[in-house]
Write a structure and sequence with these properties.
The chain is built from ten helices and no strands. The chain has 210 residues and is an all-alpha fold. It is elongated. The N and C termini lie far apart (95 Å).
Length: 210
């Protein structure tokens, strides 16, 4: 007698489910906001059981912190690769700007979440982000601010340069939906052209005046 074999839906491996949750969270947080995204909506988008989100991340806040960690680890890696070591500070800063803009272009949704969806009234998330910020400030202070402050009346500080650089590099991607509606011709330029113009603007402004 032949037995009927019940074939249910094959469960994806845990690593695949975890990645699906992260990818879905980035998409939804970027489009609807962190506060505006519910866990049930997220589970549906990721095609996972609601309990899986808590299993992997503990909470929605834990999921946000994971997104922050993933993005900032890559951003810090770009900074270390382009800024640390021997070489002219202006040349290294130019290379950093170009590579960071490419990184932002590749991680646009994640960039939106990291910059615009930070709960500013949540000390835990603020402290989490600040821990990454301190590492970036240390690199900028040593490799950019100190050498480029020579010959200036007022020294450059990483707390000025860090947010300024990040904001300027990110602006194309953060304002793209509005800029495209405005019909700005500049939005048609390539990411490489944008990085080139931005680098020229920043370096011309940071160099000491003769």
């Amino acid at each position: 007698m032949n037995e009927k074999v019940k074939r249910g839906k094959k469960k994806p491996p845990p690593t695949e489910s975890r990645k699906r949750i992260l990818d879905a969270a980035v998409r939804l947080f970027a489009r609807h906001g962190y506060a505006g995204t519910g866990l049930r909506e997220l589970a549906t988008e990721a095609d996972v059981n609601l309990a899986m989100i808590n299993y992997f991340f503990g909470s929605k806040k834990g999921l946000l912190k994971e997104i922050l960690d993933d993005f900032f680890a890559g951003y810090l890696r770009v900074a270390r690769e382009q800024l640390e070591g021997e070489g002219d500070a202006a040349d290294k800063l130019d290379a950093f700007i170009r590579e960071a803009v490419r990184y932002f272009a590749q991680r646009r949704d994640c960039l939106v979440v990291v910059i615009t969806e930070l709960p500013h009234d949540d000390p835990e998330v603020i402290d989490h982000k600040a821990a990454w910020g301190r590492q970036m400030m240390a690199i900028l202070g040593k490799e950019v601010c100190r050498p480029l402050s020579l010959g200036r009346e007022r020294p450059l500080t990483p707390l000025l340069i860090g947010p300024m650089l990040t904001s300027m590099m990110a602006s194309r991607f953060l304002f793209a939906p509005v800029s495209e509606r405005v019909g700005s011709a500049d939005m048609a330029s390539s990411v490489e052209d944008y990085a080139d113009e931005l680098s020229r603007l920043i370096l011309d402004g940071l160099q000491p005046r003769s």
